[in-house]
Structure formats: C-alpha cells, structure tokens
Amino acid sequence: MVKPGWTVNLSLATLAVFMAFMTPIQILLPLQLEHIDPQDKNAALSLVTGLGALVAVLANPIAGAWSDRTTSRFGRRRPWILGGALAGAAGLAVTASQHTVAGVAVGWCLAQAGLNAMLAGVTTPIADRVPLGQRAQVSGWTGLMQSVGLVVGALITTTLVTGVGSGYGTLAVLTVALALPFVLCHGEPALPRALRPAFDARAFARSFWVSPRQHPDFGWAWLTRFLINLGNALGTLYLFYFLADAVHYGDPGTGVLILTLIYTLCAAVTAVPVGALSDRVGRRKGFVVLCSVVMTAAALLLALVHTWPSALAAAAVLGAGYGIYLAVDQALVTQVLPQAADRAKDLGVINIANSGPQVLAPALASPIIAHLGGYTGLYVAAALAILAGGFLVRRIRGVA
C-alpha cells in the first residue's frame, strides 16, 4: 500500500506537467498567436500545437524507454522527472520570448520535449509501486490533475499575472517547484547495471512497436484512449475561439477559466469516488463505457446550442464524464502492459494516444470549421470519436 503523502506528491508532480501543457494550449498560445497573426490565428494555432504534439509523440516513449534503462542511484524515474521539468521550463521561457509563428513553434516543441520526458517519469510509478487494489483510486487523484492543472494555470494567467510573457515565466518556475517534493522525498530502488540489457539500436527501435496481434488487450486499450482523447482534443482545442466567435462571449479568456472551473469541480466529484468504487468491485470497462456516453451528451450540447448557459451546462456534464474516465483509464492500462521490465516505454507508447490526438485534432478541426459545419460539425465529430472509444473498450478481454 502506498501512503497518502506519496500520492499527494506524485499528484503535485503530475499537476506541474499538465499545468505546463494545458495552460499554453488553452490560453497563452491563442493570445500570443492572435497578437502575432490575427488574420490566420486558427491556422497558426493548429500549426504550433500540431508540431508540438508531434514532438510529444516521439519524446514520450523514447524518454520512457531510457527511463527503464536508467541505472542512477536515484532510481529510474526521478532523474527524468526533474530533468524533464528543467528542460520543459526552459522551453516555456524560449516560447515566451518569440515574436513570430515559427519562433513560437520552435519554443513550444522544445517545451513539449522536456515536459514529455517528465510525463514519462510521473506516469510510471503507479505501475511500479501501487498495488492493484489501490490503482484506480490513486489514478483518480493523479488523473484529476489534468483538469486542476488547467484551472490553476488559468487562474495564474488571467488573475495573478498580466501579460503572456509573465504567464509563461510563472508556469516555468512552478513546473520545477512542484516536481521537487516527489523527487526529493520518495526514494526508489536503483536498477543494477548487471540487469540493464546491452544496447542494440535496431532492437531498441523495434521495441516501440507493440504488436496488437500478440497483445490485443494493449492494442484495444491504446485505441480506446486515442479515440476518447481525440474527441476531447477536438472539443477543447478551439474553446477560446469558440467562445469568441460562436458564443460571442465578451471576455473569452475569463470564459475559459469559468468553464474550466466548472469542468474540474464536476470531474473531482466523480473521479475519486468512482476510482474507489472501481477498486472495490474490481471492474474498469463499464465505467469507461459510462464516461463515453456522458461525454458524448456534452459534446452534442455544444454542437447544437451556442449560448453561454449551454456552454456552462456542457462543461459540467463533460467534467463529470471525464472524471469517470480519469478514475479508471490509467488503472486499466497498467493491467494490460506486456512486461514489467518495459513499463515506462510501454506507457510511453500508450501516452501516444494522449499526444497523438493533439497532432491529428488541429489537422481535422481547421477544415471541419471551415467546410463541414463550423463549430457544430467540430463538436459532432468530437461526439462520434468519444462514443467509438467507449464502444471499443469492450473488446478488452483480460480486464473486467
């Protein structure tokens, strides 16, 4: 059994990652790019976030694989958590200083590389250290940090500091500061050098392919996560512009903050209790199906009604559904990993299903908005992706 302090400090490190990820995507990058290129802000945001997500697709599993092979006396995960935090903070500082779309793209790619190395470190301790009967509850707390990170980041960048540059700078400092409690307070066994396999470049490259034929449950879990996160990315990537252009909300930055607060509170209401319930009954898949139905309803509400009250209602419903998902998804994934020696690498491959949608969503969203029904078409597409993910989770056989 892991102690509450361990869970709290891992949650703080996870908060740091997602605060640094999500706040720029939702608030700082749209503001920065709107100032740089107001005529083509949608295309610029798609380019920057798409390139950053492409870096994330590569960086996360590679960092995870090297984490599995790290023989530092400080353990396998903590050096990557701290090193990734420092590199991610440096990337945020570079992004803040840019005045062209190309410069912002370079800075954001650097930030994504560092933050994904950190993410590889913070996602693996649950599989390394947490007993099966605790995993959904611990996953509920760490998963909730995705939403809490955006709330904290939005509060900082809309109320506590002024200006895009100071927003990036504050996030950079907090990314490192919030990583330190877990890094400094919780030791982990070192990997003996004798147990580290000899490096073979071809074998290392081949290891990133996990055959869905040989490991079908891993494949279905990956596809389920990909589709649900694709729907979530389609629904949230253009939220700032949706409020400005479709809802005609006067202050879209504040609007994003309000919606995120509601979303997070509703996610908190469901995430931890559902995690505890999932651990108690020993079931995961039914909760994923439930979350997909709830989230689909929220996406359809956004698709059909473009008003501020409907956006508030959709945020509440979407948050409740995503809270259910956060509670059980990570616990489910840890139960389908092919082998213990490659946990961080395999979780990195799974995490491509988080970052991959960030690459695909901009490529899909921009033409959907332009040619396939505007924001109505965008949120219908989000609903279909989420519903498909909930349907396919039933194909997993080795988890109840």
UniProtKB/TrEMBL annotation:
<feature type="transmembrane region" description="Helical">
    <location>
        <begin position="256"/>
        <end position="275"/>
    </location>
</feature>
<feature type="transmembrane region" description="Helical">
    <location>
        <begin position="349"/>
        <end position="370"/>
    </location>
</feature>
<feature type="transmembrane region" description="Helical">
    <location>
        <begin position="287"/>
        <end position="305"/>
    </location>
</feature>
<protein>
    <submittedName>
        <fullName>MFS transporter</fullName>
    </submittedName>
</protein>
<feature type="transmembrane region" description="Helical">
    <location>
        <begin position="311"/>
        <end position="328"/>
    </location>
</feature>
<feature type="transmembrane region" description="Helical">
    <location>
        <begin position="12"/>
        <end position="31"/>
    </location>
</feature>
<feature type="transmembrane region" description="Helical">
    <location>
        <begin position="105"/>
        <end position="126"/>
    </location>
</feature>
<feature type="transmembrane region" description="Helical">
    <location>
        <begin position="79"/>
        <end position="99"/>
    </location>
</feature>
<feature type="transmembrane region" description="Helical">
    <location>
        <begin position="138"/>
        <end position="161"/>
    </location>
</feature>
<keyword id="KW-0472">Membrane</keyword>
<feature type="transmembrane region" description="Helical">
    <location>
        <begin position="376"/>
        <end position="393"/>
    </location>
</feature>
<dbReference type="InterPro" id="IPR036259">
    <property type="entry name" value="MFS_trans_sf"/>
</dbReference>
<dbReference type="InterPro" id="IPR011701">
    <property type="entry name" value="MFS"/>
</dbReference>
<feature type="transmembrane region" description="Helical">
    <location>
        <begin position="43"/>
        <end position="67"/>
    </location>
</feature>
<feature type="transmembrane region" description="Helical">
    <location>
        <begin position="167"/>
        <end position="186"/>
    </location>
</feature>
<dbReference type="Pfam" id="PF07690">
    <property type="entry name" value="MFS_1"/>
</dbReference>
<feature type="transmembrane region" description="Helical">
    <location>
        <begin position="222"/>
        <end position="244"/>
    </location>
</feature>
<keyword id="KW-0812">Transmembrane</keyword>
<keyword id="KW-1133">Transmembrane helix</keyword>
<dbReference type="InterPro" id="IPR020846">
    <property type="entry name" value="MFS_dom"/>
</dbReference>
<feature type="domain" description="Major facilitator superfamily (MFS) profile">
    <location>
        <begin position="217"/>
        <end position="400"/>
    </location>
</feature>
